[in-house]
Amino acid sequence: MTFHGVTMSITKTIMHKTQGPSARLLDKMPARLQEQLARRLGYHYQFDGLNPFYKCLLATQHLQNKHHFIEPNYEKSRKVFQAQMKSLVAQPTTIKAVKDIQLPLSQGITHARHYHPQPKKALPLVVFYHGGGWVVGDLNTHDEACRLLAKYGNVQVLSIDYPLAPEHSPAQIVHVCVEALEWTYQHRKELNILNDRIAVAGDSAGGNLSAVVSQKTQYTIYAPSAQLLFYPALDFNQRYPSFEKFKAGVVLTEQDIDTVSALYPEKCQMDKKDPLISPIYGELKQVAPAFIITSGFDVLHDEGLIYADKLKAAGIVVHYTEAQDQPHGFINFTTIHKGAKQHLINTAKAFRKFWDQQK
Length: 359
What we know:
By secondary structure, the chain is an alpha/beta fold. The protein is 41% helix and 18% strand. It contains 12 helices and 8 strands. The protein has an 8-stranded mixed β-sheet, with helices on both faces.
């Protein structure tokens, strides 16, 4: 088959209902051929250093007129994201114990999923808040990411299915996230948490929630002992150079940010400097040690870097790193892209080492 024939074959399969298998086939191609394929598919953005796998993937999406992650029709976006994530999984990473549980919090039942790689052994626990712009995402969309974090970090993970915007306000969402952490601390014995060590973690909006929860609980007995932030959203008030550089042509776009802003803070007429939504302006005196990883090709890149610097200036122990060839959202591509999977594996291992050093 000619290169053009391969191009058309991969394009057709990705554009129909075999995204996972065809994307994994694409991932096995040499980078040089991926670059050529991306150009043939019409990807014209000059992002040197972005893994060419994503250039092909994004080009194919653009051919389908899919340019944004979250549309104003947020209910449709939820269904699309759930379906996409389901289509990408071939075989979930094996974890010895995975159990869906219900947390009886003050606002009602909140669903959660508990992962334990060694059920008979006491391990520290990570409370995980999924990404999705506060508008999309659930326990299933981030199931594989939690499995990898549990396995390679050798930690328990409790993934929280917190309520979403715009049906719920930032105050309501944060309240549930804080209560989920408090519930975890209250049940530390039943959960067999090693030395009562509990951390918070999340990606994008979940990274934001992790930072907010760390700030709001910093003077409580159930404050986390570490926080892991994947490419966090931290500032609704200001747009940084990385925003202008990557506002089109990658996973998270300017329109996505505008849509999320309209559905989350603006709907409640919140001050965009309020630390409840923009933790970059919050009090940092006694927050947990932070492990922050940004993506090299992400509108939110600079927010994560600046937040790391602010934490350091406040005397907080920080480990900052960057997934240089990855776009925003890379932990959701671990089932189809070996590079994304390796970044998450490396981060899980490094975070556990960092956390252990904070004893």
